[in-house]
Amino acid sequence: ELCAMSEYRIWPGTGKLFIRRDGKPIFLGSSKAHSLTLQRKKPAKLVWTQAWRRLHKKGITETNLKKRRTRSTKVQRAVVGLSLDDIKKKASQKPEFRSAQRDAALKEVKQRKKDNKAKSKGKGTNSGVRAPKIPKNVKR
Fold first, then answer.
1. Cβ pair 15, 7 in contact under 8 A
2. DSSP-assigned letter for residue 112
3. 27: which strand partners?
4. Nearest to residue 18, comparing CAs of 32, 4, 1, 2?
5. CA 6 – CA 18 distance, rounded (Å)
6. Which of 35, 46, 65, 56 is nearest to 7 (CA)?
7. Does the N-terminal or the C-terminal CB of the chain have fewer CB atoms within 10 Å?
8. Do 5 and 33 form a contact (C-beta atoms < 8 A)?
């Protein structure tokens, strides 16, 4: 027989049989359980009862311990400058081809910078002369 309060086993010759007002018999394993039942205490709020242990996941076997996690699936999205098709094309290209493209782009950018520098030198503006910097918050 099991105790109605603690859900522990009641050994022969121990415990009390309590009949509720509605006529339902309740087996109580100890005077402690009997007293707490009369005080109308909830078993789930008493740390030593099985109801509390079940509610707070105590003493669970290792087989049930592992949580099942759903693996997040990776989804490719388009970026602001590129569509999804363009991204897939670039990913499928060979690394040598991509590095050659990168080198060509770098050369082109360097050439453009060189041309801009040559153009700005030709103008001869007064960009080299600056006013001296005056320090702030200097106590005199």
1. no
2. H
3. 17
4. 4
5. 14
6. 46
7. C
8. yes
Q: What is the number of residues in the chain?
A: 140
Cβ 19 vs Cβ 25: under 8 Å: yes
Measure the CA–CA gap between 64 and 37, rounded to whole angstroms.
32
For residue 72 the two structure tokens come to 């997040």
- Number of CB atoms found within 10 A of residue 87's CB: 14
User: For residue 16, what are its two tokens?
Assistant: 């009390």
- Nearest Cα residue to 37 out of 18, 9, 12, 11: 18
pLDDT tens-digit profile of 47-75? Answer: 999 999 999 989 876 655 567 788 888 88
Q: Is 29 exposed, middle or buried (0-12, 13-18, 19+ CB in 10 A)?
A: buried
pTM of structure: 0.45
